[in-house]
Amino acid sequence: MIRTCDTRIRKLFFVMTLLIIQASFANAYEFSETDKCKASLADIFLQSPRTISLDSIKGEVHYLSYIRRDDGEHLSYKCKVKGNQIIWGADDGRWRTHESDDVITYETSSDSITINHRYPNNSVSRKVYSYNDLSPKLPVGRRANPSSPEVIWMNSLSQHFKENWTYTSDSTDLRCVIYIKLNRDGYVVGRRIGEHSGNIEFNKIAIRALANMAPFPPMPEDISYEKMEAKLVFVPLKPQS
After folding, report:
1. Residue 83: left if φ>0, alpha if ψ -120 to 50, beta else—which one?
2. What are the distances in angstroms from CA 81 to CA 12, 33, 62?
3. Highest mean pLDDT among 7-16, 139-148, 149-158, 180-189
4. Second label for 205, Cα 20 to 30 Å away, from 11, 74, 82, 161?
5. Contact assessment for residue 23 and residue 11, using Cβ atoms and an 8 Å cutoff
6. Cα(88)–Cα(77) distance, rounded to whole angstroms?
């Protein structure tokens, strides 16, 4: 009988147990220019990246905004990426490119963005934003409005998953959780294991099934995000007698 891997296992050991199937996860998430702009504005204004919304893109310029919690004011900004530098300004103001302005640069890894913020006195702060920090979450719990476009889309994802997950087994202790990041067209642009089943073969089955499920239902026009994250829980279906 296969034992389920303890979900409280240390992260280092968890990563080591996945090395055998590392090739299946070779596609590192590629952060978009919108992600880089959100992370930069979050650092500048001490906000969560999830509170910053993309309003539009015109050419190379991204227009973003957020609502300040202190007074409810809606604040709008423009942003563009030049090499490893973030150029920004108020949407109706000048670009912050004067020699006395702060300089914002970034670095990316497979699962995070580091924002380097150089101040006029040449001091530098560094802030790291992970894949999760930049992933808007679908609403859940009591506050979720069942008629909201996010919940309607989430339900369509759930139905799509049920229609395409057909693996059966008598085993009752297999469970693999995969978090996926979807673009507006329903294609998977990022993925990571959230919970390892303890069975390498079952994980491979879940990964192959995920690949065959794409594309997922596209986002409704009422959802303003470019990408959203969804949680998929793979457990075997009971064989029909």
Report:
1. left
2. 34, 7, 9
3. 180-189
4. 11
5. no
6. 7
Q: 17, 11 in Cβ contact below 8 A?
A: no
Q: What one-letter code names the amino acid at 57? A: I
Q: Is the peptide bond before 215 cis (omega within 30 degrees of 0)?
A: yes
Cα–Cα distance, 76 to 90 (Å, whole number):
6
Amino acid at 24: S
pLDDT of 201 strictly over 90: yes
Residues 6+ apart with CB under 8 A from 37: 62, 64, 79, 80, 81, 86, 88
Q: What CA–CA distance (Å, rounded) separates 39 from 50?
A: 9
By residue count, the chain amounts to 241
Q: Using DSSP, state whether 228 is helix, strand or coil.
A: strand
Tokens of 50: 């999830």
Decide if 160 contacts 188 (C-beta within 8 A). no
Distance CA 112, CA 49 (A): 13
* CA 192 vs CA 25, 107, 171, 189: distances in Å: 8, 21, 24, 11
| 120-129 residue pLDDT tens | 999 999 999 9
3-state DSSP assignment of residue 145: coil
Whether 115 and 81 have beta carbons less than 8 Å apart is answered as: no
Q: Which of 221, 236, 133 is nearest to 181 (CA)?
A: 133
Read off the pTM: 0.52
Q: Which residue has the tokens 């309607």?
A: 152
Give the integer Cα–Cα distance in Å for 154 and 160.
10
Summarize pLDDT for 78-98 with one digit per residue, the tens.
Answer: 999 999 999 999 999 999 999
